[in-house]
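[Meeting: bench + compute handoff]

Bench side (C.D.) handed over the final construct sequence. Compute side (W.E.) agreed to return the predicted structure before the next meeting so the bench team could plan truncations. Sequence as handed over:
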Amino acid sequence: MDFTHQLVQQLINGISLGSIYALIALGYTMIYGIIKLINFAHGDIYMVGAYIAFFAITQAGLGLIPSLLISMVTTGLLGMLIEKLAYKPLRHAPRISVLITAIGVSFFLEYTSMYFVTPTPRTFPDMFDNVAFNIGPFVVNGQQVAIFTVTILLMAILTYIVQKTKTGKAMRAASFDVETAQLMGIDSDRIISFTFGIGSALAAAAGVLVGIYYNSIDPLMGIMPGVKAFVAAVLGGIGILPGAVVGGLILGVVEALVSGFISSTFRDAAAFAILILVLLFKPTGIFGKNTREKV
């Protein structure tokens, strides 16, 4: 019974962590789906989002929801600005040039942030002090409830935008074929910019949720979650939105189980082991399909 109790508790922990990975992975997968770019600066945008919310709460005295909205809007605009300045001029450049630029943008965000906020980790305000819910023998704390609620809400809004709006239809058309979408009258530059904005806003929300979950933020906090979210996107099938969500949840659950039953030392190793296995046995991911590329 103790084993079952611990297993379910670790599953609850894993789903809350996986929800955060899913939010970051959605940004990766949306951007890749349209312009085939792995935006390695995405994890650092998530870090910027966490700091904006931190200062909104501690300096401006705002509540969690206003701080979260300010963080998402500001970081969404930052993502659009980065796309305009760093990626748009390289739209038709070799893939390696864009990849190197993404790594450069990542370092720029990390060390610019370090200059302004110092490398010292900050303690994120405890927004849910001593809030916990007992579901039978299991405990769900306030942070986990907040993470579940915000994640489900944001994913529902994203699904509505992609499936039901005119812009969402244009995004789906561009992800299928950018050139053909342009011939049909779709402004691909506007759609790409909008996609960067939404992806960056989701990353900012994940950054705020991580601040709530771990109560600590620092300028290099985006490196490992950014890489893990990339693993989650590959696991689910990069370029496929449901795949990013499923991949994030699986990765979170695996990490929680490894931490709970083996050792937290191997938590990060588990994520990379999953990446190796996926690339070896199913390179297209869970939801991906094999497509032939004409040469």
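W.E. noted at the follow-up: Residues 88 and 189 are 8 Å apart (CA to CA). C.D. will use this when planning the next construct.
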